[in-house]
Each structure stands twice: as structure tokens, then as C-alpha cells.
Amino acid sequence: MILYVCEDNLKERLWLTTCLENELKELNMNIPIESEGRPEKVLATLPDHPGPNIYFLDIQLNAAVDGIELARRIREVDPLGYIVYVSIREDRAFETITSMTMPTGFLSKEFMFDAEKFTPQLRQILVTIQDHLNQVHPNQPAYLEIKNGGFLIRLRQDDLLYIEKVRRLKKVTVVTTNNRYEVNGSIHELASHLTADNFFNGFQSYILNTEHIQTVNFTLGHVTMSNGDELNFSRGTIKKLRDFIREK
Predict the structure, then answer these.
(1) What is the pLDDT of residue 95?
(2) How would residue 103 be classed by pLDDT, with cut points 50, 70 and 90?
(3) Which of 49, 100, 190, 217 has the fewest Cβ atoms nearer than 10 Å?
(4) First CA to last CA across the chain, in angstroms?
């Protein structure tokens, strides 16, 4: 799934994209954003991202194709996508309904650049989409996005074994079933993006996926993960893990 923003006004596009990034983070919706100013660019990338995707489309685009026509063409390849129209012209809201593009919402530009008034409308639309996704795809795997070098990598959360803080650096090591990544960030920051209830983050320097714990020696404070890595904790600290496992 990709979230597309198509807005030809650069200032408005950047501001809307930033708002979306913030709200997606708050809602733990790990969805990458593609921000474009030209509708043909959106259409050209659709074969690589068949959807269902999310689309925030400005209606009055300075192009041969306006937002409503763009939505019609999107529907041809992504009939289940979520289309949200964005416009200062609220009088065109009825037109979006009768255009047979099945929009999910209409976002007015009246309060654009006023985050206090604009953000609640934006969040309500995203919550509606999130609720529908949870109903239609209840078992859809959750992902964690990390930046490794110049690349953005999406990792399935159920493939994560543990995350370890790198001492004296604002970096963490992310260990998966088949790889290791050292990335910038903090334990707290990554923990906020983990949605499953099997992640234990009661340690200051570690987050453990309890589904990948092979053995635990509560007396010695040794934890062996499914890949064979052995992690060592103090006896006092290991009690927190024991309590967490018992509660589950």
C-alpha cells in the first residue's frame, strides 16, 4: 500500500505531506508516501503499486487532467483504493460524489496551514480508512520502516527478533530472522511504531519479540533468541520479562 499526494502547488503539497507523515506516525499506520505535482506521474507508477492505495488528490490541477478525471483513471486499475479529494472549492464536493469515483472523503483547503483546525479533519479521514482496513484485512501483517543508508526498508514486524541500543551512539541494531541493520534512532522511537502486543520494551536498551524467545534462564538472566543470539540481563531486570510473559 502507498499513499499518494497529487497537488501541483509545491507549498501546499509539502505542507500536506508533512501533516500526513505526522498523523500516520501517530496512528501507527506504516504507509510510505509518494508526493507528486503531476497526475501523469501518479498514473505511471500505478502498475508497480496495484493497491489498494490511498490517494489525496487536488481537484484543480494545473494539467490536462484534473483531480476528478485522475480519480476515474485510478479507479480503472485500483477499484478498491481510498480516494480523498482536496480542494478550496467546496462547491465541487457534490461533483465528486456524482463522478462515480466513490470517494472516501473530501478535505477542504479552507484551513490549510492552520494545523489546529486542519489536522482533526485529516485525522478523521485516516481513522476511517484505518478502521475499514482493519475490518477488510484483519490479519494483514504489520510493518516497521527503517532507513538504512540511503534506502527505506520495510520489515515485517513478526520477523523482528529484537532491537538493541548501540552504546554511546544514537543508533540501534535491528535484528530480524535473516538480517541485521544498524540505523539512526532510539529504542523509544522504534517502540512507538510496534503494534503487536508480543514486543517487550521494559528494558532500557532492548526490545524483545517474545514470539522469538527460545529459552530463558531467569536465575542467570540469559535469554536465547530463535537465531541463537544470547542476551544477558541482570536478575532484577529479567523479572520484568518474567512478569510480562506470565501476564500473556
Answers:
(1) 59
(2) confident
(3) 100
(4) 31
Query: Burial, 37: exposed, middle or buried (Cβ in 10 Å; 0-12, 13-18, 19+)?
Result: middle
Residue 146, number of CB atoms within 10 A of its CB: 19
In this structure, the strands spanning 206-209 and 222-225 are unpaired
Class of domain 147-247: mainly beta
Assessment of whether the complete model's pTM goes beyond 0.85: no
CATH number of 3-136: 3.40.50.2300
Place of cell 480523498: 84
The C-alpha R_g of the chain, in whole angstroms, comes to 22
Residue by residue, what is the 3-state secondary structure of 74-102?
HHHHCCCCEEEEEECCHHHHHHHHHCCCC
Which value, to the nearest 10 degrees, does the dihedral of the CA atoms of residues 193, 86, 125, 84 take? -90
User: Judging by beta carbons within 10 Å of its beta carbon (0-12, 13-18, 19+), is residue 42 exposed, middle or buried?
Assistant: buried
pLDDT of residue 248: 66
Q: Is the pLDDT of residue 128 over 60?
A: yes
How do the domains of the chain map onto residue ranges? 3-136, 147-247
